[in-house]
Amino acid sequence: MTADTTDIDDLREQARRWLDDDPDPASRDELRAVLDQLPGSGPELADRFAGPLTFGTAGLRGPLRAGPNGMNLAVVTQAAAGLVGWLAAQGATGPLVIGYDARHGSREFAERTAQVATGAGRPALLLPRPLPTPVLAYAVRHLDAAAGVMVTASHNPPQDNGYKVYLGARLGGELGTGAQIVPPADAGIEAAIRAVGPLTQVPLGPPGQVLGDDLVVSYVERAAAVVAPDGPRDLAVAYTPLHGVGAAVLTAAFARAGFPVPGVVPDQAEPDPEFPTVSFPNPEEPGAVDRLVALADRIGADLAIANDPDADRCAVAVRDGDSWRMLRGDEVGALLADHLMRRGVRGLYATTIVSSSLLRAMCAARDLPYDETLTGFKWIVRAGGGAQPLVFGYEEALGYCVAPEHVRDKDGITAALTVAELAAGLKAQGRTLTDRLDELAAEFGVHHTDQLSVRVDDLRLITEMMARVRAATPATLLGQPLAEARDLLPDSDVVILRTAGARAVIRPSGTEPKLKAYLEVVEPAADGDVPAARTRAQAAASALRAEIAALLGL
């Protein structure tokens, strides 16, 4: 018997054991179809059984397919049973609140989670319909839940889904109430998931309580309250939810806050799990906001805003001559921070190691506390260890937390409202967001950021590129000697290279098969000529990008 035959026989036996325990007839049929195509389907079957989806600090995320290495009813049942068991072992009382987006399988996965919770004797509260992730994060705090589950794959491709966990006050503590889990909770939940026995023995209870719209109304009222009640409101906004779940909540929040209701891209307004008008449902991807800027032109908008499909991120586009320009996350982060500072909001301002250093410079000049964390809002909302109350946090990947006491996570709804408040105030003075960016550049220098992103099919390539960086760390960047060359292993797979005027942070993505290099060049505008400083910064950033590409072997 050949090794190949032995492998196929082993895979066939694993698949048969899975079929005996899979509670979903549709996924059983799907897996049987793969088995029927053996040996030709061997590689596909091997991938489906390469190992279980790992429950990490981002929860679960993967392709919708049968088998342990996918998102399906069996995997969700096991995850829910492990989570509920872990909560009981920690002595956490209170309900499990569950939200879901409009992706394929999301409602089914949410309802199964509720049944697992009630089957274990824990109350389960389901959000009333597909809603943004920030509403779930808010609900965990508002309802004093033991924990929360959000079924979403955020801005991943249509064929994916995911499962995120938030902790309540009893286990999350003051800084982590309503926030995503961090170690060691992730390892504890993962161990509890692996300890779950046969799924046929997991008790399923009633479907739980479906919450009413009063929860959504409460979220909208609190969201609208993040902007000052008496500020200018004359602002025309074009908006897209990118076929996600943000439109109804965002437009309600704008109306509640007294803004004109944004114009919504018609063929992207309703939730659609196929995301038919975009090749990739992420506002950062090329072409994703083409329909948005076309609408902005048609209605004469002052501002264009996009949420990602679960509305926890916010993208902003501004007029640039006769066209539109998408602001980088770092630009929006600086604008929001500056706006809050000008409003007199004092407390801790935080961002991540891959974001621009502009926020650090702003806090130093204005005598405000600042902290820098690893990537991810699970870390941002815990910035400073509680020594100072967090008042604002952002990450360059379009995530902003403008009201941590409302939602202790990134929130694309309140971020959009706060950007609108700033834009309306500037419009009343005959100015724009780009004018404010120029003011910041004149004061603190041009902080030009860029990103080199490498998507791979084989994750081993990412490991090889990171090894190459560590083995051949350069002595200079852009001809300047390194002031810092820091490797964050074993805590995090990150390499930081920094000079007096440039920086590169290289790391694998936590949610996609990508290697990312976050680049920044700082160019002073001491002569007051911001356009010239921008030109110099862009040229330097292009050169830095080429240097890092060569370092990665691209």
Automatic annotation (TrEMBL):
GO MF, any single term: phosphopentomutase activity
Biased composition (Basic and acidic residues): 9-27
Domain Alpha-D-phosphohexomutase C-terminal: 455-530
Any GO BP annotation: purine ribonucleoside salvage
Keyword Metal-binding: yes
Domain Alpha-D-phosphohexomutase alpha/beta/alpha: 54-192, 219-320, 329-442
Residue span of region Disordered: 1-27
Cofactor: Mg(2+)
Keywords: Isomerase, Magnesium, Metal-binding, Phosphoprotein
Presence of the UniProt keyword NAD in the record: no
Pfam family membership, one: PGM_PMM_I
Family, similarity comment: Belongs to the phosphohexose mutase family.
Protein name: Phosphomannomutase
Organism: Micromonospora siamensis
